[in-house]
Amino acid sequence: ADEHFDASFPVNFVVSSNGNVLLAPPGIVKVSCELSMTWFPFDEQMCFIKYGSWTYTGSKLDLHIDDSGLSERHKMDLMYYVPNGEFELLATPADRIASEFNGERYVELFFRVHLKRKTLYYGLNWIIPSILISISNVLGFTMPPECGEKITLPLRPHLIRRTESFAVDDSIEMGIREIIALLNAFKDRLDEEDRDSDLQADWKFMAMVIDRFSLFLFTVLIVATTSLIFLSTPRLFVKSPVY
């Protein structure tokens, strides 16, 4: 329960003509739920709340679910429910379970909360940029060895993505530009030291062979791993249970 809630709040008893006495004290309950991040960001979470008594048997404390006016999908009153920006509330089913212990019957109520994560934000900011960066890295192997952007092309998307993710200031952005300048200077230095045209042609041919092999290998690995990740995600192909 909420520690800031006043448990001594005065509540009236409702006495009926048949002898029933109703006491409905208000209360605020805080519930924590352990999340499974196996299929993030395509995950669904199931949390539950259990109400019952370890002291009073069913003959003294008989609990029932008041689902009058509620649908089969939602057994909780969502009149004051505030939608969440990260999760979508799919269903709130409930069950009444009576179990026997030492010859006595105990009643428990289980309320489940079925949540589904909204993937639009993660798709636009994580998944699609990651796929585009992987494609740009693969395309780098198709560039000729003497091209000046062969080294900086695969690194530039990572640096730009890191800049956007952490919202760096101008000083860090200047540092990124210095790194790119150093890479270009390193390439120019290699070009100056290697002036033998025959040796340079041999190295270009070897680099082209390595590039073609790397292009084939990286393409197969990226397509296979990406397909495996999406195909193994249960939420893309298995529909949520119907309550």
Could you give the topology of this structure?
Layout: E1 14-15, E2 21-22, E3 44-52, E4 87-91, E5 94-101, E6 104-117, H1 120-139, H2 152-166, H3 170-193, H4 197-231
Antiparallel strand pairs: 1-2, 3-6, 4-6, 5-6
Organism: Teladorsagia circumcincta (Brown stomach worm)
Keywords: Membrane, Transmembrane, Transmembrane helix
Domain Neurotransmitter-gated ion-channel transmembrane: 171-230
Q: How would you briefly describe this protein structure?
A:
By secondary structure, this protein is α+β, with helices and mostly antiparallel strands.
Mean pLDDT: 77
Number of helices: 4
Classify the helix fraction into a percent range: 25-40%
CATH class of the domain at 34-117: Mainly Beta
Would you report the number of β strands? 6
Q: What's the SSE pattern? A: EEEEEEHHHH
CA distance, first residue to last residue: 29 Å
Oligomer: single chain
Q: So what's the overall shape?
A: elongated
Quote the CATH topology of the domain at 34-117.
Acetylcholine Binding Protein, Chain: A
Rg calculated over all Cα atoms: 31 Å
- Based on the structure given, which CATH architecture of the domain at 34-117 is correct? Distorted Sandwich
What summary fits the major beta sheet?
Answer: 4 strands, antiparallel
Our estimate of the beta-strand percent is 15-25%
CATH superfamily descriptor of the domain at 34-117 = Neurotransmitter-gated ion-channel ligand-binding domain
Give the class from helix and strand content and strand pairing: alpha+beta
